[in-house]
Amino acid sequence: MKIDRHARQSAKRYFRACLRPDGSLDEQGIRDIVNLLVAEKPRSYLPILTRLLKLIEIGVEERAVRVESAAPLSDQGASVFAELARRYGPASRTSYTQNPALLGGLRIQRGSNIWDGSLSSRLERLQQSFA
Amino acid sequence: MLIPNLPLANLIDNLKAAGDNTGWNTNQFIAQCVCMTVLFLVLNQFASKPVRAILEQRRKTIEEAMANAEQIKKELADAEASRLAVIQKANERATAIIAEAEKTAALRGEQRTQEATRQAEEIIKKAHEAAVLDRDRLLAELKRQVGALVIQTTEKIAGKVLTADDQTRLNAETQRQLSAPNN
Question: Which domain holds residue B87?
């Protein structure tokens, strides 16, 4: 579906209206806006909804936090999630996994930001320096 | 015998008398003169004139032939002179062409020599560059393989030798990165 400039701008405006002051997404606000668009059916409402869905997906992914550790963490990464929420606001989604392939240390990802202190990444960087 | 200066009648008479005395017959003489004159005229008209005409024609033909021969001789001389001039010119041209060809050949030879020298230098340079690249590539490959071996060994060992304290320390390092002010 081709999304024109008007639909992009409208979707961006609706998306901003769905954000709370701390930057998190207001799920109820999103539902209200989607219901309103479906009911009113303004011009280009389908492209607007498509673009809005894409923006919401990006917003969710930007606030999703993923923690991996080589050894199991006693608090299941809660301290990391709390620190990230304190610094960047609440996460849209959190996940913790144990990954022995890391060999040691943690790998934290929030959206496009990655803090990788794992031993495997250090060895990989070392290998890249050899290459 | 002397003939006296007498009138014509006397002369004829005297001639008749003399002829009578010496066997001379004036009438016959006159008739012979007339016959000779007529014969002369006839011969002149029908024999001598055509012969003279033929002779004149032959003379003209001979003159023309001689003139033609002279003309031919002159033309032959001119042709010979032209031939010599052409040969001389051809010789000069051939000499110039040979000189030019020798000059061009020398120049081409020099160019070929320079080109061969340049190509040889280029080949040597490329070979040197290829050798350097090959050496660098081998060194990089060696470095990469040694690095991969070291890392592979480290990975195998690290999984076994890292204690719980090491894991806690590594986790704390990452969390400190997270808490760093510039993040």
Answer: 27-128
